[in-house]
């Protein structure tokens, strides 16, 4: 691991010193597989997403981040949930310790070509039956679980 460590309900976690609005997307294909990327900073498989920039909406952030990280163009189709658990913090090598603040959207592919970025070593659509066989952080597993439940209302937590 280089540069990032996630803590989730860990009594040894450092205290958060920043909060950054972020967006992620659960992008599915016609076979029910979910678009995941293997992060270069942690080695875990994760949803594409990242920090919001000034001058964009959170939905635009999700679309931009998916394009940057996977090469795919997407259309937002819904809202999976809002994830703001203060017991999930991410510690970075530069000393930033960020409290989770991620809005996760549902989306579908509209174009582009699947490509890895400097933030990932692999990008792939993965079937939910394979999730237990690959490294995925618990907070991402929670989102994948919420998606599998096909909730009528977004998760608010």
Structure commentary:
The protein has 157 residues and is α/β, with parallel strands linked by helices. The protein has a single domain (4-156), classed as Nucleoside Triphosphate Pyrophosphohydrolase (Alpha-Beta Complex). Helices cover 15% and strands 41% of the residues. The chain contains two helices and twelve strands; from the N terminus they run ββββββαβββββαβ. It has helices at 58-70, 138-148, and strands at residues 4-8, 18-19, 22-28, 34-39, 45-46, 49-51, 72-83, 88-92, 97-99, 102-112, 120-126, 155-156. It has a five-stranded mixed beta sheet with strand order 6-3-10-7-12, sandwiched between helices. A four-stranded mixed beta sheet has the order 1-8-9-2, with no helix packed on it. The protein has a three-stranded antiparallel beta sheet with strand order 5-4-11, with no helix packed on it. The mean pLDDT is 95.
């Amino acid at each position: 691991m280089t540069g990032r460590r996630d803590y989730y309900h860990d009594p040894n976690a450092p205290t958060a010193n920043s909060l950054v609005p972020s967006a992620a997307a659960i992008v599915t294909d016609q076979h029910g597989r979910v678009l995941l990327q293997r992060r270069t900073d942690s080695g875990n498989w994760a949803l594409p997403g990242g920090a919001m920039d000034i001058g964009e909406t959170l939905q635009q952030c999700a679309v931009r981040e998916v394009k940057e990280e996977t090469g795919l163009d997407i259309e937002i189709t819904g809202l999976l949930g809002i994830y703001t658990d203060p017991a999930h913090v991410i510690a970075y090598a530069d000393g930033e310790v960020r409290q989770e603040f991620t809005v996760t959207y549902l989306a579908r592919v509209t174009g582009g070509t699947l490509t890895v970025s400097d933030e990932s070593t692999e990008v792939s659509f993965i079937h939910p039956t394979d999730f237990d066989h690959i490294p995925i952080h618990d907070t991402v597993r929670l989102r994948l679980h919420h998606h599998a439940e096909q909730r009528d209302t977004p998760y608010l937590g």
